[in-house]
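Bumping my old thread because nobody answered last time. Still need a sequence for this structure:
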């Protein structure tokens, strides 16, 4: 499941995937840009929506980066740093994916109309 079907409106699950991709992309781009601007920067997120004893949820979430840097010393430095930048986003920087990874209590409140 990914973002970008024929329907112009995002589903809530697509918004979750887009939030993960956007958050991680901003982290990685900011970290690598200190070394070199990229010539290609694409991020995709996929996962499976399942219904089981735990209720509806996503499994197998995977964030994939396709990043290209120009030839030369700056591009080489950015290429070398890219895996570390991705790990930094995954392990501590991206609030969205960190919240999903660690889990967070969600309180629901409602009033009768």
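Sorry it took so long. Here it is:
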């Amino acid at each position: 499941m990914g973002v970008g079907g024929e329907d112009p409106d995002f589903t809530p699950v697509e918004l979750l995937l887009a939030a993960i991709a956007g958050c991680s992309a901003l982290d990685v781009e900011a970290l690598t840009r200190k070394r070199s601007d990229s010539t290609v920067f694409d991020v995709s997120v996929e996962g499976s929506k399942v219904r089981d004893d735990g209720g509806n949820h996503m499994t197998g979430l995977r964030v994939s980066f396709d990043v290209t840097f120009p030839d030369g010393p700056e591009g080489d430095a950015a290429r070398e740093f890219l895996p570390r930048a991705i790990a930094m986003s995954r392990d501590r920087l991206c609030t969205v994916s960190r919240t999903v990874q660690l889990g967070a209590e969600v309180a629901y409140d409602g009033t009768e109309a």
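The chain is about 45% helix and 25% strand. Let me know if any region looks off to you.
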